[in-house]
Specification:
The structure holds two protein chains of two kinds. Chain A is an alpha/beta fold. Chain A has helices at about 40-50, 65-70, 105-110, 110-115, 135-145, 160-165, 210-220, 225-230, 255-265, 270-275; strands spanning about 10-15, 35, 40, 55-60, 85-90, 120-125, 130, 150-155, 175-180, 185-190, 200-210, 240-245, 250, 290-295, 300-305, 310, 315-320, 325, 330, 335, 340, 345-350, 350-355, 360, 365, 375. Chain A folds into two domains: about 10-275, Spore Coat Polysaccharide Biosynthesis Protein SpsA, Chain A (Alpha-Beta Complex), CATH 3.90.550.10; about 290-375, Hexapeptide repeat proteins (UDP N-Acetylglucosamine Acyltransferase, domain 1). Helix content of chain A is about 20%, strand content about 30%. In chain A, strands 15, 17, 19, 20, 22, 23, 25 and 26 form an eight-stranded parallel beta sheet that branches. In chain A, strands 5-4-1-6-11-8-12 form a seven-stranded mixed beta sheet. Chain A is globular. Chain B is an alpha/beta fold. In chain B, the strands form seven sheets. In chain B, strands 17, 18, 20, 21, 23, 25, 27, 28, 30, 31 and 32 form an eleven-stranded parallel beta sheet that branches. Chain B has a seven-stranded mixed beta sheet with strand order 5-4-1-8-13-10-14, with helices on both faces. A six-stranded parallel beta sheet of chain B has the order 16-19-22-24-26-29, with no helix packed on it. Chain B is elongated. Chain B starts with a strand and ends with a strand. Classes of the chains: A alpha/beta, B alpha/beta. The interface between A and B is medium-sized, with 34 and 36 residues.
Chain lengths: ~375, ~400
């Protein structure tokens, strides 16, 4: 191989599962939702790929991708500003006669020429709704060892109620798999609602590039759109599809509540260490100064990024970069995104503020454990 | 393509008065203010002033500095034409030489400067903490029609004899230069930042090099020669924050001043004059249950479970439960174990302070020592480090060092 270490091409679908978090994707897409104090969700899968030597990564975007392009720039911060490969954002063609794609097959059909000209043997397909420090090499190793046509990464666990509750035309499907004792997949369920432990697909797939091209070619000619429903599921008897169980730390964003909970989980050092080691997660650099705690500030059990100025009292909260907490303000169980300002004497509890929200002085705003209040970008309360 | 002005940054100083902190590190690479290194200040000033070509003259322990500067991208100094260049002494057909003095360092790089054919050259120093707009300095230099200008600060008269003093007339034209005078005629101290017209600088560098008795120093040789020839020399008044962090106590003091921008005048939180640096890339810092943080600066990657008061923690510092940190500058990657007490001191990078060890002490009466612990040092359990100690080597558990 000339241009990569891993002989693997990455293809990401940044708009998948947008429908689960309508509030957060109002002005962005799933991939660029802020997470964990200074990251965007896409940072995790991108960094994981880069740390595994995958340095030719394409993102097929669908809509609302301005914030993602702004975040990724040339890809330099992920070491993806490359002459060969690197970062490649593929917007939909803006032609009247062409419909914006639906599903992975149509998306991939739009980049078939690109896929044909690449040199890598394998392709990893991945959604961007999952936060994990994922070892793609282990996934690829198993794929090669088993001689599978397709390998699906999955986690063992219960289906979140929020996922079960959502149904409708525009909603992305989710998948669980049944396997035989050799981990070969013999059944794929779409939007199952059963209780108890299931094998929940992460929608990370490894497949040989040539095979993927064939699948997409045939699939798109026949008007297929969903890779899982239309291509994998009907052919499990003929294709060798294997499962790869992922045991590492994983956070799935399936609605606003889970977004809140998964952020909060990082206040436990064990979770923080599990997610951020051993490999680093890269993100866009903002050149913030260190965070300043001014006399009178009180902080307990908080995860705080650089660039904040704390004069008030914060507890059990996640503060993103550049958040300002005024004198006498009280913050409990909150997720405050970049450049949020909580003015003097304000009192907030169970609140998610999007970027650049201001809570003016003296205001009181309280959600509950089961229903955090969300304040949209740029709003002044 | 000609540049109007380029910068030459003197970064070769050994910084011997920082002792263990500069044992393996050039002084400009010494960490400062939570996430910066000293050299971030002149480099950021250059970029913020529109100067996009900087030569960094290195000589002493350049490895860390070279790696830190890299291609200059963090300062936006990775340019097609210009950008940042590290310039160590190199071998030439006529032989090779260490930089003999500040003027000789520039002399040896005349061909570097010539490549950009600049009208002006600004000479900067890599060991000062200062936010300064060099474009305003240049505007002044041009307005005065000067051939040489020097940035000066008013200092208290009683301290004037510690500095190079510029005596100027009512138009700020410099009439006399006194190097550390016993009886100063003025209180305008040179900051060691000069703007030269390039043709003048080149002429005097060549003349100076030809003089076998010269020490090849700007203050001792070049500036007196300019006076001899009655060149047009002006003093540019600077009123902002400026600190030479050449000693342990001044470095500690400058760090503490960062904690009080309202009074000290060194504001790192200014969005209009950002100080850029290479980022650690660590995740946010975590303040644990039962931790206390007061009047401090905490950087990404820190985990605080003890008490931190009026201190600066650099990236990735860990303060365990029951540990106490006060008036301390704690550099990146250092671990302070539970029950340890760390006060009024500078702890360098990747140090481990063992359980219940004591480092430094709050000033008592006249005693105002700043204890200093060098890079990668291990301080054993229960060890005691006195307020004036300079720790270069590991200290075993229970031992004392004063």
């Amino acid at each position: 191989m000339v241009n990569t270490n891993a002989d693997v091409l990455g293809v990401l679908f940044p708009n998948s599962y947008d429908s689960l978090v309508p509030e957060l994707v109002n002005e962005r897409l799933m991939a660029s939702i802020p997470f964990g104090g200074r990251y965007r969700i896409v940072d995790f899968v991108l960094s994981s790929m880069v740390n595994c030597g995958i340095d030719n990564i394409s993102l097929i975007v669908r809509r609302n991708y301005l914030s993602l392009m702004d975040h990724l720039g040339s890809g330099r911060e992920w070491d993806l500003a490359r002459k060969n490969g690197g970062l490649n954002i593929i917007p939909p063609f803006a032609e009247k006669t062409v419909k914006i794609y639906n599903g992975r097959v149509e998306a991939l059909a739009s980049i078939l020429d690109f896929l044909r000209t690449q040199k890598e043997t394998y392709v990893v397909l991945a959604d961007t709704n999952i936060v994990a420090n994922f070892d793609f090499n282990a996934l690829i190793d198993q794929h090669v060892r088993t001689g599978a046509d397709v390998t699906i990464a999955y986690t063992e666990g219960e289906i979140p109620d929020s996922a079960k509750a959502v149904h409708g035309q525009d909603v992305d499907l989710y998948y669980t798999i049944d396997m035989d004792e050799d981990q070969r997949v013999n059944y794929m369920y779409m939007n199952p609602t059963q209780d108890g432990k299931v094998n929940f697909s992460m929608n990370y797939y490894v497949v040989k590039r040539e095979l993927l091209i064939d699948m997409v070619n045939v699939g798109s000619v026949r008007g297929m759109s969903l890779f899982e429903r239309d291509i994998l599921s009907p052919h499990l008897d003929r294709m060798k599809v294997y499962g790869y169980k992922y045991d590492g730390y994983v956070a799935r964003i399936s609605d606003l509540k889970s977004y809140f909970d998964e952020n909060m989980k990082l206040l436990d050092d064990r979770n923080l260490d599990a997610l951020f080691s051993p490999s680093p997660i890269y993100t866009k650099i903002r050149d913030d100064n260190p965070t300043r705690y001014i006399a009178g500030a009180v902080a307990e059990n908080v995860l705080v990024a650089d660039g904040c100025v704390i004069e008030g009292d914060i507890e059990n909260s996640i503060l993103f970069r550049g958040v300002k907490i005024g004198k006498g303000a009280k913050v409990r169980n909150c997720v405050l995104m970049q450049d949020t300002v909580i003015e003097e004497g304000a009192n907030v509890e169970y609140v998610i503020t999007d970027k650049k929200v201001t809570i003016t002085s003296g205001k009181e705003l309280k959600g509950t454990d089961s229903f955090p209040v969300y304040i949209a970008k740029h709003k002044v309360v | 393509m000609a540049k109007e002005i380029i910068a030459m940054l003197l970064a070769g100083g050994q910084g011997s008065r920082l002792y263990t902190l500069t044992q393996n590190l050039a002084k400009p690479a010494v960490p400062f203010g939570g996430k910066y290194r000293i050299i971030d200040f002149p480099l950021s000033n250059c970029v913020n002033s529109g100067i996009d070509t900087v030569g960094i003259l290195t000589q002493y322990q350049p490895l860390v500095l070279n790696e830190y500067i890299g291609n200059g991208q963090p300062w936006d100094l990775d340019r097609l034409h210009g950008g940042v260049h590290v310039l160590p002494p190199y071998q030439q057909a006529s032989g090779s030489d260490w930089y003999k003095g500040t003027a000789n360092a520039i002399y040896q790089n005349i061909s570097f400067i010539q490549r950009y054919d600049p009208q002006y050259v600004i000479i900067l120093s890599g060991d000062q903490i200062c936010k300064q707009d060099y474009s305003d300095f240049l505007r002044y230099h041009k307005e005065k029609g000067a051939e040489f200008s020097v940035a000066v600060m008013e200092v208290p008269w009683e301290e004037a004899s510690r500095f190079g003093i510029m005596v100027a007339d009512e138009n700020d034209r410099i009439t006399e230069f006194q190097e550390k005078p016993k009886e100063p005629k003025s209180n305008l101290a040179s900051m060691g930042i000069y703007i030269f017209n390039w043709d003048i600088l080149k002429q005097y560098l060549e003349e100076d090099e030809a003089d076998p008795n010269s020490e090849n120093d700007f203050g001792k040789n070049i500036i007196p020669n300019l006076f001899r020839d009655n060149r047009r020399m002006y003093a540019y008044h600077f009123n902002g924050y400026w600190k030479d962090v050449g000693t342990i106590s001044s470095l500690w003091e400058a760090n503490m001043e960062v904690l009080d921008p309202e009074h000290s005048g060194i504001n790192l939180f200014d969005d209009d004059w950002k100080i850029y640096s290479r980022n650690s890339g660590m995740t946010g810092h975590k303040i644990g249950k039962g931790a206390v943080v007061e009047n401090s600066m905490i950087t990404d990657g820190c985990r605080v479970n003890g008490r931190v008061k009026h201190s600066i923690l650099f990236a990735g510092v860990r303060v365990e439960e029951g540990a106490e940190v006060e008036d301390a500058v704690v550099m990146g990657g250092t671990v302070i174990k539970s029950g340890a007490v760390v006060k009024h001191c500078i702890i360098a990078e990747n140090v481990e302070i063992g359980e219940n060890a004591v480092v430094g002490a709050m000033p008592a009466g006249e005693e105002k020592g700043v204890a200093t612990v060098g890079n990668n040092v291990f301080i054993g359990e229960g060890a005691v480090i006195g307020p004036n100690a300079m720790v270069r080597n590991n200290v075993k558990g229970g031992e004392q060092q004063w």
